[in-house]
Amino acid sequence: MQFRPGINRDVTSYSNEGGWVDCEKVRFRLGFPEIIGGWEKYSSQTYIGTVRSLFNWVALDGDDLLGVGTHQKFYVEKGTDFYDVTPIRATTTNGITFAATDGSSTITATDSAHGAVGGDFVTISGAASLGGLITAAVLNQEYQIVSVPSTSTYTFIAKDTSGATVTANSSDSGNGGSGVDGAYQINTGLNTSVGGTGWGTGTWGRGTWGSGTTLNSITQLRLWSQDNFGEDLVFNPRDSGIFYWNKSDGLTQRAVNITSFTNSVDAPTVAKQVMVSDNDRHVIAFGCNPLGSGEQDPLLIRFADQENILDWSPTSTNTAGDLRIGSGSEFVRAIETKREIVIFTNNSVHSMQFIGAPFTFGIQPIASHTTIMGPNSAVSVNESIFWMGKENFYIYDGQVKELPCTVKEKVFFDFNSRQPDKVFAGVNSEFTEIIWYYCSDGNAVANGGDGENDKYVVFNYGEGVWYYGSLSRTAYIDRGIRQFPIAAGGQYLYNHEVGYLDDGSAMTSSIESSPIDVGDGDRFVSISRIIPDLTFNGSGATSPSVNITVQGGDFPGGAYAQSDASGVTRTSTSTTVPFEQYTNKADIRVRGRTFALKVASTDADVRWRLGSPRIEIRQDGRR
């Protein structure tokens, strides 16, 4: 029994005879299926928010750094520790007063210039005790704002230095000290896209009570772009400012907006993406505001003077300038390759190249009538770019082509169309895989799920095949500087391709063939023996095993019939045989017009790979 590599779900099962129809946590290598590598927590350290961006670089002193952008914070990670470098948006000096109510842990702060929204973070300093249990140590720390009753007030929940909630034992109000200061971090972003109009389409506290959006659109969730400028980091929360983190200032210093530097000249105040061009060392802002205007142009590209992140004003003595994309209505993503920067709009693709003085950069269209699912749904490898579009996959390797896909219906029929911006593409170069993590419709909030990515689909560009599975990951980067690929899930980072465990637990994997018939499917057959062809090389388990199931059926689309089982595990629809490493054969009894093969593993630390198993089969009749 030899099967074609890859999964095919775009034809009927009978039409796919000799192929595979379903899988879970399986990849193909050299044409044969095997279990994927496992994962383990990178460390026990957690972060605040959902990670949407990861970027790895090395500083001049050899420090291995990782930029981590969540919908609430921005961190620089080093040695498993997360350093909060989220920029400060505004500060208040001697301008905050508090009110506490006996029996309540809610503190109301009054600051006429706070500009905060629900979910933002503020660091309070200079406060003294309000009386009772609300001491200076309780007040003087970082808090996440719970609600914003008005433009001059906000509330937070009092806690001690260990994070435990503190309840006031008396009512009091005042400034909590002679002068209370507040440092407000940049507004937090959304953790999900919200569509529609009217009250409730934004997050709580984004406007006055009862206010709603005026446009029938999807509200942008918090996404980040980041790139290193030498050993320093430049990053941009989508549709917000551009920030700079100076490595020399230390890991505990926060990033600052580039417009705040004294020698900053006409720097963009808002952008959709920031990038550092590797070949010519220009900092480029995409979808930014024009020179002399604060209004964002979704198709405008601006670039600073070469080797200068602060000078954005074009003159005869520098290389700063701008370009405007000629088609499309909104910039979506730019990806740099060795020869060009490929720019995606909502319906076109363009090539941007360094051409030197006097224009610095040139741009030309390379494709139209294309789509892209979201800003993180494209990735480059080996001078090619792969991306997920609306109902299609594409590749750009000098020209844009639709990528033939044998699991397109499986992916897009179960795709949560409300969350296209959560799609995250990554490369697993060791196994020549392009991975797209996405939220399925079954995991949508409307269907009882959490609305986060829970599925993945893989195109193996080395094998030319597709496969898929279930896994909750929101961001991913390939190995390179670090030994393993790193992905974000929940509140942890994970090393991938480590052993064959699901973070210390058994990992379930399986693959199932399409039905196979004898002749034209007009004859009944009997299967009496299986001779397996498996390898368990690399397994950590003492006695690795898998289950091979042979299922018999009578008609297309019909349920598999109950199999006669003798000396094997019996299920309601099939004969299941546990194969140890040295199992020679298994005697079974299965009848039907067709039969299918399924291989599954549920044990811990088992690495299996299927070859070409044999079965003993003969024509049979019904009794």
Termini gap? 27 Å
Rounded average pLDDT = 88
The unreliable regions are 199-218, 561-574
Percentage of residues assigned to helices: under 10%
User: How does the helix and strand content classify structurally?
Assistant: mainly beta
DSSP strand count: 53
Radius of gyration: 29 Å
Characterize the largest beta sheet: strand count, sense, and whether it forms a barrel: 7 strands, antiparallel
Beta strand %: 35-45%
Q: Based on CA inertia axes, which overall geometry fits? A: globular
**Number of helical stretches of at least 4 residues:** 2
Oligomer: single chain
Break the fold down into its secondary structure elements and pairings:
Elements (H helix, E strand, L loop, with lengths): L19 E5 L1 E4 L2 E4 L3 E3 L9 E8 L5 E7 L3 E5 L2 E4 L3 E5 L4 E4 L5 E5 L10 E5 L10 H4 L2 E3 L2 E4 L2 E5 L14 E3 L6 E5 L8 E6 L12 E8 L4 E6 L2 E6 L5 E3 L10 E2 L15 E4 L6 E4 L13 E4 L17 E4 L6 E6 L4 E5 L2 E9 L3 E9 L9 E4 L2 E5 L4 E4 L3 E3 L5 H5 L11 E5 L4 E6 L16 E6 L4 E6 L4 E3 L8 E4 L2 E5 L12 E5 L2 E2 L6 E8 L2 E2 L9 E9 L15 E2 L4 E6 L5 E7 L1 E8 L7 E2 L3 E7 L3
Antiparallel strand pairs: 1-43, 2-3, 4-42, 5-6, 6-7, 7-8, 9-17, 10-11, 10-16, 11-15, 12-13, 12-17, 14-15, 18-19, 20-21, 21-22, 22-23, 24-25, 25-26, 26-27, 28-29, 29-30, 30-31, 32-33, 33-34, 34-35, 36-37, 37-38, 38-39, 40-41, 41-42, 43-51, 44-51, 45-50, 45-53, 46-52, 47-49, 47-51, 48-49
